[in-house]
C-alpha cells in the first residue's frame, strides 16, 4: 500500500528543518549505501549526528499522525537520513536493505522538504507489478511505500532536492495484513462517525483487536 500524508510537518516545523539544512555539512551518500547500491546512489546526506534535533522532529511528526499510525502500525521508526540532490544527482533503481541499523525495514518513507517548483527532475519512482508511479510532492508531505519495492530517484536537472528518508519496523510484518487492518479500522471509524457506538462498531472493534493479537510481532 502506497499513500501520501500531506502536511506531516507544520509550516513552522518545515521552516525549522529548511533553516537547519541550509547551513548543515553534507557528505557523500554512498557512505550509508549497501554494497551494490553504492553503484547507483549519487546524492549527499547530512554528516554523522548533525541535525539530531531535526531527525527527532521528523520522527515525532510522523508518529503522531493518525494516518501513519493506522496504516503503518509502527514499532520503530529508524535510520532517518536527511539527503540533498543537486543538479546531476540521482539514486538509481534499487531495493532497500532488509535490515537498516539492526532493525527490519518493512515500510519506507520520503518526506519532501523542497517545493516541487524549486527543482527540475528528481521524481521518486516506485515500481509496481505492471506500472510505475512517480511522486514529486509539496514540501512537508510524506510518501509511504513498502520497503520491498524497487524504486529510484530520477536525475535532478536543475535546482536542489531536499528530502528526509527513513524506515519503519512495523508491529505487523506482512503488508497485506497491514492493509486489511487499515481497511477495517477505516470502516470502523466511519461507522462510529455515522452511528456512534453500536453493536456493529463493537463487533468490528473486537475483530480488529483479535487480528492484531494474532499478527503482532
Outline of this structure?
By secondary structure, the protein is of the alpha+beta class. The protein has helices spanning 11-23, 52-63, 66-72, 175-195, 199-215; strands at 3-5, 26-28, 41-42, 44-46, 74-85, 90-94, 99-100, 103-104, 107-112, 119-121, 124-127, 132-135, 142-146, 151-153, 156-159, 161-170.
Task: Give a description of the structure.
There is one protein chain. By secondary structure, the chain is α+β, with helices and mostly antiparallel strands. It has 2 domains: 3-170, q2cbj1_9rhob like domain (Jelly Rolls), CATH 2.60.120; 175-215. Helix content is 32%, strand content 33%. The protein contains 5 helices and 16 strands. The protein has helices at residues 11-23, 52-63, 66-72, 175-195, 199-215; strands spanning 3-5, 26-28, 41-42, 44-46, 74-85, 90-94, 99-100, 103-104, 107-112, 119-121, 124-127, 132-135, 142-146, 151-153, 156-159, 161-170. The strands form 4 sheets. A 7-stranded antiparallel beta sheet has the order 1-13-9-16-5-4-2. The two termini are 20 Å apart. The model has no long low-confidence stretch (mean pLDDT 94).
Amino acid at each position: 500500500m502506497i499513500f501520501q500524508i500531506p502536511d506531516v510537518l507544520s509550516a513552522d516545523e518545515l521552516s525549522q528543518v529548511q533553516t537547519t539544512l541550509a547551513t548543515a555539512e553534507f557528505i557523500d551518500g554512498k557512505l550509508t549505501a549497501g554494497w551494490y547500491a553504492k553503484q547507483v546512489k549519487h546524492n549527499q546526506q547530512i554528516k554523522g549526528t548533525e541535525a539530531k534535533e531535526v531527525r527527532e522532529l521528523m520522527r515525532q511528526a510522523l508518529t503522531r499522525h493518525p494516518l501513519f499510525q493506522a496504516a503503518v502500525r509502527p514499532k520503530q521508526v529508524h535510520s532517518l537520513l536527511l539527503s540533498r540532490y543537486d543538479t546531476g544527482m540521482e539514486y538509481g533503481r534499487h531495493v532497500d536493505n532488509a535490515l537498516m541499523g539492526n532493525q527490519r525495514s518493512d515500510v519506507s518513507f520520503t518526506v519532501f522538504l523542497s517545493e516541487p517548483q524549486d527543482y527540475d527532475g528528481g521524481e521518486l519512482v516506485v515500481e509496481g507489478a505492471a506500472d510505475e508511479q512517480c511522486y514529486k510532492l509539496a514540501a512537508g508531505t510524506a510518501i509511504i511505500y513498502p520497503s520491498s519495492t524497487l524504486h529510484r530517484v530520477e536525475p535532478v536537472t536543475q535546482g536542489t532536492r531536499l528530502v528526509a528518508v527513513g524506515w519503519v519496523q512495523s508491529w505487523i510484518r506482512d503488508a497485506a495484513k497491514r492493509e486489511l487492518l487499515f481497511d477495517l479500522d477505516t470502516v470502523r471509524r466511519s461507522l462510529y462517525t455515522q452511528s456512534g457506538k453500536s453493536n456493529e462498531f463493537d463487533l468490528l472493534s473486537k475483530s480488529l483487536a483479535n487480528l492484531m493479537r494474532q499478527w503482532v510481532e
